[in-house]
Amino acid sequence: AAERNAVEVKLWSVGAYFRPIPDLKLMANYSKQDLEHITAINDTINTWMVGANYNVGPGKILFGYGQKDPDGSLKWKQLSVGYEYNLSARTYLYLDLSQKKLPLTTTATFTTKQNHYALGVHHNF
Q: Using an 8 Å Cβ cutoff, are 69 and 45 in contact?
C-alpha cells in the first residue's frame, strides 16, 4: 500500500500472512513514513511487526511483537498477547495485554515501560 496525504506525508507499507496449518496464521508487516514536508529533523519513521493467531476451540490466542523507529536511533518495542472467545458468529469477548518499552535517551541505557490492558465485548452489527 502507498499513501500521500494533503500535508505531503508519504507512507508505504507491505504485509503478508501465511497459514502453515489451518488453525495457525503467521503475519508480518513493514512500513515507512516520510515526514520531510512537515518536520525538519527526525523525518522518517520505520515500523515492523510480526504476529500469530492460533485457533483453540471456540477461541483464538493472539501474539504480536513490533518495533517503531521514529528517528533512526530510538526504538520503541512492544510485545502483546491476547485471547478472543467467540460467543456467537458476530460477538466475542477479548482480553489483550501488552508492554511497550520506550528508551529515554539515544543511548537507550534507560527505558520506561508502559503496560496496557484491554478487556471487552466486540459485536458486529
A: yes
- The tens digit of pLDDT for each residue in 6-55 reads 666 778 899 999 999 999 999 999 998 876 666 556 677 889 999 999 99
Note whether 99 and 122 are within 8 A (CB): no
How much is the CA Rg of the chain, to the nearest whole Å?
A: 18
Burial of residue 18, with CB atoms counted within 10 A of its CB: 0-12 exposed, 13-18 middle, 19 or more buried = exposed
Q: Using alpha carbons, list the distances in angstroms from residue 53 to 50, 71, 89, 93, 100.
A: 11, 31, 18, 15, 20
Residue 45 to residue 43: CA distance in whole angstroms = 7
